[in-house]
Write a structure and sequence with these properties.
alpha+beta; 5-stranded antiparallel sheet
């Protein structure tokens, strides 16, 4: 974990115009900046950046947030990755919070492996471009594949000389640890001597989403029946093959912009397609797709198109593993490249424009394609047909989101026609698989259920279910006042409330005999109030930046929404311009604080009145009724006082 004081240093140096301006061309327009939105295609600028509020807002697509959320959305960084990017930009030394020696050692090892891989990438690039052997062997190979010098440099391709230990000698001379060199797979031990593992091979660096080198793929150039065609880095603390797709770093913006990811098998397919201008492409490097890889794709798009060589023997096996892509909610299409061609050779043969057209015209729906391929093998075998019906029903059952209901029904209709079976029977079978999966989920949930005190409220569960169902959750009528309380704390929490005892607005709010977190209905407001109170109890009054740049994206987005509220800014200069006192100007925050807290307390009192009346109606003994009458009178008196203090508030 990054230490809090390090985060504060980073936040204090953030300049949103500078950060967003690194990716978007901005022009000053009044007190704000304007540019073309990077999150959707537009010709007329509707993307604004406010340096005073430290937020951005697109009035075209609705995207909004702060500097960190911009990096998370645009670069697909995690919160911690965005902080590290900012720390590097502003030369802030990152300190970690106290962690166990084991975790610290793991972090140091990961950093060391990144450093070694970075050194190796530079070494192999120089060997390729600046040595005679590299140019004659490695560069010649890339040129034969049709790669330009610019493409070679873009993908940071390299070459490892055929000398037994040229790389390891250089690395050891520069002080790199032999054990770590072995962990990366760059070096191996033969006859008790360290030797280069990739000698005589061209090198394909494998990058993570931020451009750091995780590992390498090394291709042999001479025919050798005893040596594998490719050697890939072994899995270690930074390289986990199942979580990586080759080319993601170079393809991420194109995938986001075109809302489609093309998936191929090999490194050269990716490089060749990129060079031709087809940039929304990544490779699985010949391995079966994993859930982690599918979720990586889903960060950028829901549309996955897989390109298979037409004569690939692995197509059928690969199709069996694509059910999980459907389960992850991806719209999966399949394209077969003509026989004896692969994406690399085919795009060079017909060109980028024709290749894109070919892909668009020849896309086949994964489920229907899978069924048709299986039907060709099925023949007239009735047992095989029964097995196939079950396989297809199980695949369709994984399309179980409400918004995909129509798509699921279309599949049932088309598959039942192709298989010549009763449509209602297939519906029943699909529902059987859905029920089985739901039972399995419930059993799994029961095993991992949180303690009873941590169970979500019925309202929260209903809200989540509504969101999962694609239903817009509308704010309740009281949330305006809850939002106002958050706004007061964020804007004025550290300002003076009473000159007499020098108390602050936060002091006043948190010394009232009411728990405003429990009064709030909105879950995100509850979280903000809970954290604010926790920090306050520790002697800290957090400023708005704490929440604006919060690790919880829900909190940061809601804070941006609160700070974006124009009502609080309209009257800041009204007194000077019109010589009148305004609601939001001067010391009006004091009145707003009292009015808002009184309103929320009044809500609580009204609920208590109602609860008291309900219990009163159910009670028979006279002495008990007298107690309820006494409580009722006390609550009604308190209600009248609060109503008078609020003044202009209208109650429903």
């Amino acid at each position: 974990m990054i230490a809090q004081h390090t985060i504060q240093q980073i936040l204090s140096r953030i300049d949103i115009v500078e950060i967003v301006g690194s990716f978007v061309k901005l022009k000053k327009r009044g007190t704000s900046y304007l540019g073309l939105c990077p999150f959707h295609n537009e010709k007329t600028p509707s993307f604004t950046v406010s340096p005073s509020k430290e937020i951005y807002k697109c009035f075209g697509c609705g995207a909004s947030g702060n500097s960190i959320s911009f990096l998370m959305e645009h670069e697909k960084y995690s919160y911690v990755e965005a902080l590290r990017w900012l720390a590097q930009k502003y030369n802030v030394e990152i300190e970690e919070t106290e962690v166990s020696p084991e975790v610290k050692q793991q972090q140091l090892l990961a950093d060391s492996l990144y450093i070694i891989n970075g050194f190796a990438r530079e070494y192999f690039s120089k060997t390729l471009l600046e040595t005679e052997e590299g140019q004659n062997v490695g560069l010649s190979y890339f040129e034969e594949r049709g790669f330009t010098r610019e493409t070679v440099q873009k993908f940071q391709l390299g070459y490892c000389s055929n000398e037994r230990d040229a790389f390891v000698k250089t690395a050891l001379e520069k002080g790199y640890n032999l054990e770590y060199l072995q962990k990366t797979g760059l070096v191996t031990i033969r006859n008790e001597q360290p030797v280069d593992n990739y000698r005589g091979r061209v090198i394909f660096p494998i990058h993570n989403q931020s451009g750091k080198v995780l590992g390498f793929g090394a291709r042999i150039l001479v025919k050798n029946d005893r040596a594998p065609k490719y050697i890939n880095s072994p899995e270690n603390e930074i390289y986990v093959k199942s979580k990586v797709l080759y080319g993601t770093y170079f393809a991420r913006h194109a995938i986001d912009r075109l809302n489609e990811c093309l998936l191929v098998e090999g490194y050269t397919d990716v490089v060749s397609l990129h060079q031709a201008g087809v940039e929304n492409v990544v490779a699985s490097s010949g391995t079966s797709l994993t859930v982690d890889q599918l979720r990586l794709i889903k960060k950028y798009t829901n549309n996955l198109t897989i390109l298979y060589d037409g004569d690939s023997a692995g197509v059928k096996a690969a199709l069996r593993g694509l059910d999980m892509a459907v389960e992850e909610g991806l719209n999966v299409k399949v394209v077969l490249i003509p026989d004896k061609e692969d994406p690399d050779s085919y795009v060079q043969k017909i060109g980028a424009a024709a290749f894109r057209e070919f892909v668009d015209v020849n896309k086949q729906d994964f489920v229907l394609f899978k069924l048709q391929v299986a039907m060709q093998d099925m023949g007239t075998d009735s047992s095989r047909k029964s097995q196939l019906v079950n396989e297809i029903a199980e695949t369709i059952s994984k399309i179980d989101k409400v918004e995909d209901f129509t798509r699921q029904q279309d599949y049932i209709r088309q598959c039942s026609q192709l298989l010549k079976i009763d449509e209602q029977g297939l519906i029943t079978l699909v529902n059987k698989y859905i029920r089985e999966r739901l039972v399995k989920r419930e059993q799994q949930f029961a095993k991992n259920a949180p303690p009873e005190d941590d169970q979500l409220s019925d309202e929260a569960i209903a809200a989540m279910e509504a969101q999962e169902a694609g239903v817009e959750v509308v704010f309740n009528t009281d949330e305006k006042q809850e939002k106002e309380l958050v706004k007061i704390l964020l804007r004025f929490g550290d300002m003076t409330f009473s000159e007499e005892d020098k108390s602050t607005v936060a002091d006043y709010i948190f010394h009232l005999p009411y728990d405003f977190e429990s009064l709030a209905d909105s879950m995100v407001i509850k979280k903000i109030l809970r954290e604010y109170k926790s920090l306050y109890d520790e002697g800290n009054v957090p400023d708005r930046k704490w929440f604006l740049y919060h690790a919880d994206s829900e909190i940061s987005k809601y804070t941006a929404l609160v700070l974006e509220d124009k009502e609080a800014d309209l009257s800041l200069n009204w007194k000077q311009r019109f010589e009148i006192n305004t609601i939001c100007g001067d010391n009006a925050y004091l009145k707003d604080t009292i009015s808002t807290t009184n309103y929320l307390i009044l809500r609580k009192v009204k609920k208590l009145v109602l609860e008291n009346q309900q219990e009163w109606n159910q009670t028979a003994p006279l002495e008990d009724q007298l107690k309820f009458i006494e409580v009722h009178n006390h609550l009604k008196q308190l209600e009248r006082e609060l109503t008078q203090n609020i003044g202009t508030v209208i109650f429903r």
